[in-house]
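The following block was generated as part of the benchmark described in Methods. Ligand: zinc ion.
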Amino acid sequence: MIAPETQTSIDYVISRVAEHFLNVMYFDGSRYLIAAGGLTLFLLVFRVWTANRRIQRTKSAKPGDYRREFLSSMRTVFVFGVTTLATLIGKETGVINFALEDAPWFTVAWQFALIVVVHDAYFYWIHRAMHSKRLFRATHLHHHKSRTPTPWTAYSFSTWEAALEAAYMPMFLIVTSLLGVTYAGFALFLFLWHMIIRNVMAHAGSELFPAGWVDNPLTDWISTTTHHDLHHSDRANYGFYFTWWDRWMGTEHPRYKEEFRRNAKPMVILRPRGSQPEETAKTA
Ligand SMILES: [Zn+2]
Ligand SMILES: [Zn+2]
């Protein structure tokens, strides 16, 4: 016979775990569907523009690729639910501090910037590690089955890679909590949306960034679709949001800028019928 107080705590644990799972499945699943679905729609609506900016001109993903990417992304969402139980346990035991109440905008801004910059470093190094001979097959081969990426490639991970990717959030929150920082829920919310949006953009297959991006020092440090597409077709370029780590570690693709300039066509001004369209800027 289980004592009533033990039963109550078991019930509490079950209800908290169930609530956590439902929240993660709903939030992560819908984030993926909205971001990948939204970008697919954009690519379809502006198909002339995107065809003109196609990165791998002669190749396209097959229906089987879309199926594999979608199904493994659903598995990734499930693995995210399991891995982030660490966040739930950390919060319940007081090891992790984050506050869902309103925070001043500057707190949200610096916390968002910090979590993105640290995530970029985390991603670069686990990505390099997953490309090592020892780990590649078990962890990262699945993601590279997509040689011609689509927005649906964003969460196409093996179980091990999904767990590694999801481990960042609880680890980051444990470290910052130990340092006495209480993270604002809204900064985490922004981070998660920024992450999936940049992720689907990196796998768009057509260059989404404006011409001149890699030739302007104000924007060159932000990575583009060509940057990650080259990683799928020809390796190099292991970074996520920024070009810093690849430049510091000498892993940037030697033809990155050249390829970007070829893909990112300048905007075109439509001229009256009968006359030729004119480019607003020269391709560098
Ligand atoms: Zn890779
Ligand atoms: Zn990728």
